[in-house]
């Protein structure tokens, strides 16, 4: 099944000379073990790219190295032309790269509203923010004062994404958000991302195992194998099942 | 059980609370036990001594003490503690070294002996059929006020929200754009200022010598292991332990009574490593 | 090996074993001689001060053994010192005469009481649920309690004034000086022998990586408890010496300040060097006594500052400053001989035969309904499994499927919430990892977990510690390891790296070392958590062959968690597919490769209904 040709795919604009994200030769690992090697990629404004591959190949590490949650051993990262490599994580977040980690990354003991409030810059209006959250994810309406830890798995992921979107990031970096979710929930998430991209021109880097999800929304994809990031290819004419067989199968 | 004893227990509990609150906040936020807390307490007491010896009315140094202590803490945190982030054992040793240094500096300047302090004579009031010192009674409302303000800030302000986030999960807070370093710094200064305040409050009723902070540090240290970052839980623990200490002092021996808190805490923790409150201990 | 070389090897072994200890002992003859020679030149006053300094040197040995070598920080020893001192003082006072027999009696009482206290503190501190903070808290409480008890002791303890003039002259100051000096040197040499032995290596291993020790079957808490009690006896003995020689005791002898000073001496002198702390203790105490009258506070302040600086900038203490010049010196004097510590180890394979497999064996590992819940989250649910010797079982599944948790449930009896696990027919119930290891389970962790500061040879020696008790005074030069361990060592090239420190190895070599350590315990069940993570292709191939060999030839059950599906396909005899904590498929490589459901799980396109149906079947 081909990716939907009608989808809001990346259309190059004339003033998009500077890529939103420019990664060159990024190498990183844990302790003595090198996990990713010389990863290079560029993402244009408004573009969505997907990084796919089997588990343990370094996809998460790549994302973490970009936002400096894992300190890169070498390489450079630029956001809109600005040097980002090795910048403290909170600075990266404030500069416009929002990272959505794979783990349950919400504050379980805080309420839904508090979680959203934390993500907002200081003087922003919480009510407007909550309204847009509830518009994107109707399932979260009326839950303002519910403790985030008591939400269902799918709802927690929605909250996670909502928190990320509320910051109006230039670049969203998402690590396996669909993991463990029902197909219906995945559709909701995907639609939210597409809406976001269409209205705000947010660029997105996704790591995904669900290729159907990834190919529906991404413009380009690349395969990560044993720490090496492959060439990016367009998703326009790709058959995700064939790609899955080639790269993910047992 | 006479009213005087109960009041003693309550006021002791109130005093425990004021002393421990600062230590607890630092423990919860920064995951470190600040052994210099006792020295900060002494700093607060001596600020009071110095101020009153210059003829200032007693209530002024009570406001001055936290400021002085806060300044010292503000200098110490970046120089000593920040380097040792992630090394809990070394942090323990370093704060202990700091404790020694500050106390020795105080001793150098003031001498080893007890300082004379102009006692606050607020008189006594009749309460529950017994006459009791008004000054001591004030510990209760002060403790309650402090506890309430901290709880309010934690739960109703953005500052408190940020603080709670850092307590719950530092990494996630960083990812969410919170500058942990600043939060830790502010917490340490605030917690130490509270210690200074406690020291100043103590001066009229305790003998002031350089080691004034030691038994309090010890009790506070023990109690904070037992309780989470909840001021309410701290309040309960302080009242209970305060009553226990007072009872033992009257039934047995005052010196033995000061053992009540550490022994009780050690035993409780052995069988309930999580302390009183669920999720209290952050290991 | 020819007769000739076997003979010279044997002789070499003998020399080396005897050699270490002889050299340590002779090293201490020099200061002993100095002590004796300079004695006439010093005045009585100096000798009296030095007597006390030497006694405190003994406490430094205790604290360093515990803290520098085994990683246990104890403030309690301050109080234990006080107990020894007060025991003598109280006995002498109550008997009314301070003669030698009274001193000995008092000392004995003090040592016994100190050991009892140490056992109590140890019981409170060294158990699986206690973290280091709790241990610190408890040890901190002891001097505090001691001081309070003494102050409340009234006539018996002399309260705040202490006790004095209870001794009749047992020895003259001259004799005390020589006696304490010699005792210090004897204790120091004994401690040196201990830390250079395999037991010393064991302490260091515990300090480096306690969890690894536990999973190797070592009863860490027991070791700590024994060391704690032994040093308690030594410290109380020192206290007894103090009371007998100084004829006065006061509460602060065993209080927090005293305990702090002991820690400071060790920190300043250099943790884990023995000599450093002793020198620091003697020098600092001597200077304190001299300066103490004149500038007590400045001196204390200086010590506090020095302590803080050492903690911040020089964790190795002053000894670390001396390390470089000392290394140059020792190379000057002993150029030809290598450092005994890194002398070549000989590895031998054990001769025991593995009984041949005939397919009738009972299952080596049985899991029934194993479930693991964390609060409301179920990580692993209702897993049933039977696996036997000779199998290579791979556990696969997407992230978060519960693979590592399942493995933990097998190696740690306290981990699971429900269900049963049997190893070779024996239930593991709620046993701790060390006890489960004794049943024949050994786990290799995901991030290479070895003992960084130890050499490869030492790591292997410790890996065997459960079955081959480490000697208190010797280092084994010949390691007899199970054949499977030797296979790993030879196949991965570790045999050439025996003298290398583990932390200097490459990542792949560390993984290999940990594997060798795991095999050194000769387990029935080998659990490997992502053993090929971070390895190169060649390294993976080598390890893959080793795993297969371990299972087939040595009859082990090998269970691995792996992400690399090609690797899994190559070496497994059986694959378990986990998804969201449940066992989805348990079959051969073909079964799993051909399963469409598995494909869909990996690409995340499964249908909930199909999944439920599959689970029912």
Automatic annotation (TrEMBL), chain A:
SMART domains: AAA. The keyword Nucleotide-binding applies. One of its GO terms (molecular function) is ATP binding. Residues 21-248 form the ABC transporter domain. Pfam families: ABC_tran. PROSITE patterns: ABC_TRANSPORTER_1 (PS00211), ABC_TRANSPORTER_2 (PS50893). Keywords: Amino-acid transport, ATP-binding, Nucleotide-binding, Transport. Gene3D superfamilies: P-loop containing nucleotide triphosphate hydrolases. PANTHER family: HIGH-AFFINITY BRANCHED-CHAIN AMINO ACID TRANSPORT ATP-BINDING PROTEIN, HIGH-AFFINITY BRANCHED-CHAIN AMINO ACID TRANSPORT ATP-BINDING PROTEIN LIVF. Belongs to the ABC transporter superfamily. This is ABC transporter ATP-binding protein. The lineage of its organism: Bacteria, Bacillati, Actinomycetota, Actinomycetes, Mycobacteriales.
UniProtKB/TrEMBL annotation, chain B:
It is a multi-pass membrane protein. It is found in: Cell membrane. The chain crosses the membrane at residues 6-27, 34-52, 58-80, 92-112, 132-154, 185-206, 218-244, 256-273. InterPro entries: ABC_transp_permease (IPR001851), BCAA_transport_permease (IPR052157). Keywords: Amino-acid transport, Cell membrane, Membrane, Transmembrane, Transmembrane helix, Transport. It holds the Pfam family BPD_transp_2. Belongs to the binding-protein-dependent transport system permease family. LivHM subfamily. This is Branched-chain amino acid ABC transporter permease. It comes from the Bacteria.
């Amino acid at each position: 099944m081909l990716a939907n040709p009608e989808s809001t795919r990346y259309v190059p604009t004339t003033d998009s000379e500077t890529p939103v994200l420019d990664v060159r030769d990024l190498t990183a690992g844990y302790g003595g073990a090198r996990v990713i090697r010389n990863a290079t990629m560029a993402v244009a404004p408004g573009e969505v790219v997907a990084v796919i591959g089997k588990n343990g190949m370094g996809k998460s590490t790549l994302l973490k190295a970009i936002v400096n949650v894992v300190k890169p051993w070498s390489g450079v990262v630029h956001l809109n032309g600005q040097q980002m490599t090795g910048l403290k994580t909170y600075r990266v977040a404030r500069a416009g790269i929002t990272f959505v980690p794979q783990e349950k990354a919400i504050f379980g003991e805080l309420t839904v509203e508090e979680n959203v409030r934390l993500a907002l810059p200081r003087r922003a209006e919480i009510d407007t923010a909550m309204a847009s959250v509830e518009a994107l994810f109707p399932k979260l309406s009326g839950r303002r004062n519910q403790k985030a830890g008591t939400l269902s798995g799918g709802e927690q992921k929605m909250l996670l994404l909502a928190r990320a979107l509320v910051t109006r990031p230039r670049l969203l970096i998402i690590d396996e958000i669909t993991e463990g979710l029902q197909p219906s929930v995945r559709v909701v998430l995907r639609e939210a991302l597409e809406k976001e991209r269409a209205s705000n021109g947010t660029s997105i880097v996704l790591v995904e195992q669900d290729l159907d999800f990834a190919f529906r929304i991404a413009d380009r994809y690349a395969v990560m194998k044993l720490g090496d990031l492959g060439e990016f290819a367009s998703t326009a004419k790709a058959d995700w099942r064939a790609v899955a067989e080639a790269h993910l199968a047992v | 059980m006479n009213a005087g004893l109960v009041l003693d227990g309550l006021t002791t509990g109130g005093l425990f609370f004021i002393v421990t609150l600062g230590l607890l906040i630092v423990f919860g936020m920064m995951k470190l036990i600040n052994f210099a807390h006792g020295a900060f307490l002494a700093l607060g007491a001596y600020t009071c001594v110095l101020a009153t010896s210059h003829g200032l009315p007693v209530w002024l140094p009570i406001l001055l003490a936290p400021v002085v202590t806060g300044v010292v803490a503000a200098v110490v945190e970046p120089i000593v503690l920040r380097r040792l982030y992630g090394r809990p054992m070394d942090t323990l040793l370093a704060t202990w070294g700091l404790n020694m240094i500050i106390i020795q500096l105080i001793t150098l300047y003031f001498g080893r002996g007890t300082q004379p302090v102009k006692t606050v004579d607020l008189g006594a009031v009749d309460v529950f059929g017994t006459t009791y010192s008004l000054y001591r009674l004030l510990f209760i409302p002060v403790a309650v006020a402090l506890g309430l303000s901290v709880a309010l800030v934690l739960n109703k302000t953005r500052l408190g929200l940020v603080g709670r986030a850092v307590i719950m999960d530092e990494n996630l807070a960083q990812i969410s754009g919170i500058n942990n370093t600043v939060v830790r710094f502010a917490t340490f200064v605030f917690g130490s200022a509270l210690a200074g305040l406690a020291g100043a409050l103590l001066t009229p009723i305790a003998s002031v010598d350089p080691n004034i902070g030691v038994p309090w540090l010890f009790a506070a240290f023990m109690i904070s292991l037992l309780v989470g970052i909840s001021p309410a839980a701290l309040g309960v623990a302080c009242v209970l332990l305060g009553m226990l200490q007072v009872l033992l002092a009257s039934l047995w021996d005052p010196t033995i009574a000061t053992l009540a808190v550490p022994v009780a805490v050690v035993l409780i923790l052995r069988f309930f490593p999580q302390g009183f409150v669920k999720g209290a201990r952050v290991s | 090996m020819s007769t000739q070389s076997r003979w010279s090897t044997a002789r070499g072994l003998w020399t080396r074993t005897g050699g270490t200890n002889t050299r340590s002992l002779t090293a201490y003859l020099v200061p002993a001689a100095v002590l004796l020679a300079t004695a006439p030149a010093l005045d009585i006053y100096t000798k009296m001060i030095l007597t006390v300094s030497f006694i405190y040197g003994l406490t430094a040995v205790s604290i360093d053994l515990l803290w520098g070598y085994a990683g246990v920080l104890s403030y309690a020893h301050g109080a234990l010192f006080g107990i020894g001192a007060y025991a003598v003082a109280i006995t002498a006072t109550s008997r009314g005469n301070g003669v030698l027999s009274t001193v000995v009696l008092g000392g004995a009482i003090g040592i016994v009481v100190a050991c009892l206290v140490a056992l109590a503190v140890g019981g409170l501190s060294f158990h699986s649920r206690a973290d280091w903070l709790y241990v610190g808290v408890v040890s901190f409480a002891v001097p505090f309690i001691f001081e309070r008890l003494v102050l409340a002791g009234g006539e018996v303890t002399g309260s705040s004034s202490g006790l004095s003039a209870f001794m009749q002259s047992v020895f003259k100051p001259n004799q005390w000086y020589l006696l304490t000096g010699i005792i210090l040197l004897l204790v120091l040499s004994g401690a040196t022998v201990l830390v250079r032995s395999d037991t010393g290596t064991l302490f260091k291993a515990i300090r480096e990586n306690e969890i690894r020790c536990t999973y190797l079957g070592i009863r860490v808490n027991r070791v700590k408890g024994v060391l704690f009690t032994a040093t308690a006896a030594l410290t109380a003995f020192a206290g007894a010496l103090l009371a007998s020689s100084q004829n006065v005791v006061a509460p602060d002898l065993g209080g927090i300040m005293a305990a702090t000073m002991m820690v400071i001496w060790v920190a300043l002198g250099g943790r884990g060097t023995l000599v450093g702390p002793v020198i620091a203790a003697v020098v600092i105490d001597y200077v304190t006594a001299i300066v103490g009258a004149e500038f007590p506070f400045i001196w204390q302040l200086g010590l506090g500052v020095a302590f803080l600086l050492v903690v911040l900038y020089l964790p190795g203490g002053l000894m670390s400053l001396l390390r470089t010049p000392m290394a140059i010196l020792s190379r000057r004097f002993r150029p030809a001989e290598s450092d005994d510590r890194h002398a070549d180890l000989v590895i031998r394979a054990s001769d025991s035969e593995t009984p041949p497999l005939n397919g009738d064996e009972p299952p080596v590992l049985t899991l029934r309904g194993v479930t693991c819940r964390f609060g409301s989250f179920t990580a692993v649910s209702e897993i049933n499994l039977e696996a036997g010797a000779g199998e290579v079982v791979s556990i696969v599944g997407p992230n978060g499927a519960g693979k590592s948790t399942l493995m933990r449930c097998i190696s740690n009896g306290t981990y699971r919430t429900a269900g049963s696990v049997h190893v070779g027919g024996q239930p593991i119930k709620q046993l701790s990892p060390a006890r489960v290891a004794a049943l024949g389970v050994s786990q290799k962790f995901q991030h290479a977990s070895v003992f960084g500061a130890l050499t490869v040879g030492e790591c292997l020696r410790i890996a065997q510690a459960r079955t081959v008790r480490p000697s208190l005074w010797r280092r084994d030069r010949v390691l007899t390891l199970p054949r499977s361990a030797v296979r790993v060592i030879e196949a991965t090239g570790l045999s050439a790296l025996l003298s290398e420190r583990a932390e200097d190895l490459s990542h792949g070599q560390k993984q290999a070392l940990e594997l060798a350590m795991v095999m050194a315990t000769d387990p029935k069940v080998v659990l490997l958590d992502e053993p090929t993570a971070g390895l190169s292709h060649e390294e993976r191939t080598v390890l893959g062959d080793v795993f297969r060999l371990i299972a087939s030839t040595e009859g082990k059950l090998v269970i691995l968690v792996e992400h690399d599906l090609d690797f899994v396909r190559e070496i497994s005899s059986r694959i378990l597919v986990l998804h969201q904590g449940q066992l989805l498929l348990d079959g051969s490589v073909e079964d799993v490769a051909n399963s469409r459901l598995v494909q869909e799980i990996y690409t995340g396109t499964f249908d909930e209904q199909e999944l439920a149906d599959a689970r029912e079947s």
